[in-house]
Amino acid sequence: xxxxxxxxxxxxxxxxxxxxxxxxxxxxxxxxxxxxxxxxxxxxxxxxxxxxxxxxxxxxxxxxxxxxxxxxxxxxxxxxxxxxxxxxxxxxxxxxxxxxxxxxxxxxxxxxxxxxx
Length: 117
Hints:
This protein is 72% helix and 0% strand. The chain has helices at 2-16, 32-90, 93-102.
């Protein structure tokens, strides 16, 4: 009976163990066309990214130049306004008359002609 019990236990252990089937690793094989397609896609993606970065850098540089030119224009406009105010101050009638008298000129009413802008 001892032998029969051992055989039953042995059969029982064999039934409890699940059969482990070795998994086969499938090796992925790419054809030449697939390899070329994949390689061309990588090259296109690389070219596109480089082009985009290059264009963005160019746009950044141009925007910087535009801002610098705008600042220069504002400074020149301010300088022009200051000079226009100075011209108006220097071209007053009283100042011109004082300068003329300083230089020894006299005012003759008969020779004066009024010119309007």
